[in-house]
Amino acid sequence: MSTLATVFTTGLAAEAKVARAAGFPALIGAGNHEQTTALVDHALERAKCLVSFGVAGALAPGLRPGDVILSGDVIGDDGRWRPTDDFHTRILDLAWQIGAFEGPVLGSRTILSTEVAKRGAWRKTGALAVDMESAVVARAADAAGIPFLVLRAIADPAMRELPPAALIPLAENGTPALARVLAEVLRRPRQIPTLLALAREMQQALAALAAPARALRGLLATP
Length: 223
Known about the structure:
9 strands; alpha/beta
């Protein structure tokens, strides 16, 4: 399987930057379901493998910022997708090598912003983490008959409550809508400490992704 035929799907421009530094083309869905779906559908013309890549919110209570998850098991609102036995074995081997957690990931159309929502999703699905791209990637790969992977690092732990400024939709290019974020912060400045903590956790997660992304080249280059 050529790494040149592998396409990464991200939500943030910062995630795409990490993927490209590792030598992979990256799409930026900006947390928008329709935009992500359209980009992934277009990428199927050249892709032989799809990867959902970036940061995630923890659902399992033991996960901490910077913990890495490598998975081929995705739960969506309309189905569940799993790898073949052979590909799963290769995922497990690489997860062991890079010190990643291996287990199901929840693909959600909305941000799970509260501890209650995360705990409920964990109890219902057993998923380790949640993001907004993995179900799109898994669904498209399954329909096209090609493999997929999820490589994610935890940003916000399960007990982290996301403040209103963190829930503002991204710009189309996957960067924060700074004017709207600033206006929200000025309106409710008490959220500033939580936003600063989130920023630190995000940087931990992005830094944790660099080496696993490079290691993924070996798995995807294996026939």
